[in-house]
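Run log, item B.
One chain of 420 residues. Sequence copied directly from the ordering sheet:
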Amino acid sequence: MKQKRLMVVAGVILLVLVLAVVPVISACAGPGGKTIKVGMSTPSTGPAAEKGSPMGHANLDAIEYINNELGGVAGYPIEVVWLDNAYDASKVVTNVKRFMDEDCVLFTTASSAMMSASMEIANRASFPGIASFNSPILHRPPLHIYGQMPDYGDDWAAFAKYYMENIWKGPGKPKMAMHLLNNPTGYGALDASKAAAEELGIEIISVDEHKAATTSEMDSLTRIRASNPDVLYISSTPAPTALIIKNAVDLGLYPGVTIGLGHAGITSALVDIAGADVVEGVYGVFPTVNWGDDVPGMAKMTEYVRNLHPNDEGNMDYITSWAQSLIVAEVLRLAVENAGYDVLAKGGEEAWQAVETQGIQKLNNFDVGGLHGPVSYTPGDNRLSKSVRIFQIQNGAITPITDWIEAPVVKYEEFDWFGQ
């Protein structure tokens, strides 16, 4: 136990003080010193740290719970090689190469942008990956990358349908302006709008892009205001989303226009950065439950966050990555059961194939303690959970206003424009 305590302390020091690209090993030895290695990469520093930091904490906290309280996977502790990618495409590619070299049997990312940067090398090697935050480009057509939850296109479609059925009251088509992060976080929403806006009866009047480190969107929002939109849809991370909404308030665009957000942006970090009064009334889509909801997995997760990372309590990104680690454990359990530990222990292509075909593709209504929808693999659809809810910020709280909405599969690869 003393050795384990020293390992945990060393991991925390490396993560918080050094913030270097080095592994954090979260395992004690199993039978005969045997473990199962997985790679996890989060943007815990850099321009998306407000998301990546709590997500990295949650991944490792959940693995600690799995190893310490559940006995690991079939008696084998999970050994995590954790690497910070700093929301940098070149770093995440290096991370994934390292995961393969160190005999990890699968890898995870927090962000769609980082998975997009690394998926080419992973798909070429048939190295299975699971992205918490998902975009159509990651899994259409389906290869070796899986989305933990619905993608940013599913967000847009769910919000657009809700808007048409519950908010829009005018004659004709509502005019929608889109403000998108210039990576798959934004482009996934754009893909959905291209595929479905006309059918839903929505006119897309403008598409603007921004960078994660943007410092002002006054010019783009001034142009948007001049076009007199009915709704502004933002698919981005919390910091730029907060800035865009604050700029919209300064210009008198909001309140007035309806604002909808994809699930990358609507977290407690958004409220903290922008201020509750600024984002009051904003709508958004998210694929997990909220903190305090009466679901079986809430108590244990809350216990761990309060003990290990109390500042993360209330952040829905923590829920996402805690659930991701539960899914990883179930995938490994199935792979050990169906293919045997010795196959996984070797690492390399045989282990990767076993984890994918005998683990990921055997998922069938796995319950992550009710923290989000059931997790299943469906042939031809690499999204593992397929349900979202619509939320609204009310009195500073991100409040669900719908039941779960099932997101149908969209075969984007059948559109000529997809991926162009």
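Observations after the first pass:
- Residues 33 and 76 are 9 Å apart (CA to CA).
- Residues 316-339 form the longest helix (24 residues).
Flagged for discussion on Thursday.
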